[in-house]
Write a structure and sequence with these properties.
The protein has 308 residues and is of the alpha/beta class. The chain has a single domain, classed as Vaccinia Virus protein VP39 (Rossmann fold, 3-Layer(aba) Sandwich). It has ten helices and nine strands. The strands form two sheets. It has a seven-stranded mixed β-sheet with strand order 5-2-1-6-7-9-8, with helices on both faces. Strands 3-4 form a two-stranded antiparallel ribbon. Strand 3 and strand 4 form a beta hairpin. It starts with 5 loop residues before the first helix and ends with a strand. The mean pLDDT is 91.
Length: 308
């Protein structure tokens, strides 16, 4: 854990830090029944269910037997590869520099980056619980998580991903608990930075963009994707990039405002030292809530290059 306010984070998340993940399925079900919906226990399992399904569900043989499931898992991996293509991530500019995966969640994208580019790759996130799962999968090549069926009913999904990533690839990957708005890295260290669906989940999106650019090496690339799904529980309204102030010239359009921030001369708070090299405005991404509900998003994908 490398964060600017360690005491605050540990105090707020001590239950997650101390949590065990080795309960049997009947005991886990009993705990959920006792705690009920809205409890921290259920909320954590809901986050795990959605993130693990998105990152690893396409590796689960049991998913093929689920006739009710229309959207297929693995959307975040497809989004990543669309971004790598848009950024021409195989270009020599990335060179031998390491890779940064901002908001890595369950860790699949971090492993994909290491496998695709054969470079040391660090995945960062603030969610201790999901990082523990990501690291366990890297080390054991086994996935186990509570997959929500309906209400507070969950099914334990356990399967092997052995052979999906070579030992050499897994050895290139590590997961750190870090704050995207205060990256603990020196300037110009990364050849590629990826931030998928994380910008609308941080306390200060503009600061997160500045930090990403700061840590990129000259001519380094970045892949940024967001559905602009702002929530005041994650980001104060004044920190949103669009989504408010509809009386302004941009009428609250986040996509237009983000591009003005990333293009020289476009905005008074323009982010210097970076340019847009490719765009894809509506890439599908979906988050599974339970077997009868999936949230559908259209992600705005932008590939960047650091100037200099």
């Amino acid at each position: 854990m490398i964060v600017p306010r360690l005491r605050e984070l540990v105090a707020a998340w001590i239950d997650r830090i101390r949590a065990r993940h080795s309960f049997s399925e009947p005991i886990e079900s009993l705990l959920r029944d006792c705690c009920g919906p809205g409890s921290s226990f259920h909320d954590e399992h809901q986050r795990l269910s959605g993130s693990m399904w998105d990152h690893w569900g396409d590796c689960d043989p049991a998913e093929d037997q689920d006739g009710l499931l229309a959207p297929r898992p693995g959307a975040v991996v497809r989004l990543l590869h669309a971004g790598l293509t848009a950024a021409d991530a195989s270009s020599p500019a990335i060179g031998q520099r390491p890779i940064l995966d901002i908001g890595c969640a369950a860790g699949r994208t971090t492993l994909e980056l290491a496998a695709h580019l054969d470079r040391p790759t660090v995945g960062i996130d603030l969610d201790i619980s999901i990082l523990q799962h990501a690291r366990a999968i890297r080390d054991s090549e086994e996935v186990s998580y509570p997959r929500r069926r309906i209400g507070i009913v969950y099914d334990r999904r356990s399967f092997s991903v052995r052979g999906s990533y070579a030992a050499e690839t897994r050895g290139l990957v590590d997961y750190w608990c870090c704050d995207a708005t205060a990256l603990p890295f020196r300037e110009s260290v990364f050849g590629l930075a990826v931030s998928l669906n994380n910008l609308d989940c941080v306390a200060a999106p503009l600061t997160a963009l500045q930090e990403m650019i700061r840590t990129l090496a000259p001519a380094g690339k970045a892949v940024l994707a967001t559905p602009y799904d702002w929530s005041s529980t994650a980001t104060p309204v004044e920190g949103w990039i669009g989504g408010h102030s509809q009386r302004s010239e941009l009428r609250g359009a986040g996509d237009r405002l983000l591009r003005e921030l990333l293009q020289r001369g476009g905005h008074s708070s323009v982010l210097e030292g970076v340019r847009i090299i490719a765009e894809r405005p509506a890439i599908p991404w979906h988050v599974r809530l339970h077997e009868r509900s999936t949230v559908q998003y259209l992600c705005d994908l932008i590939a960047l290059e650091k100037i200099g």
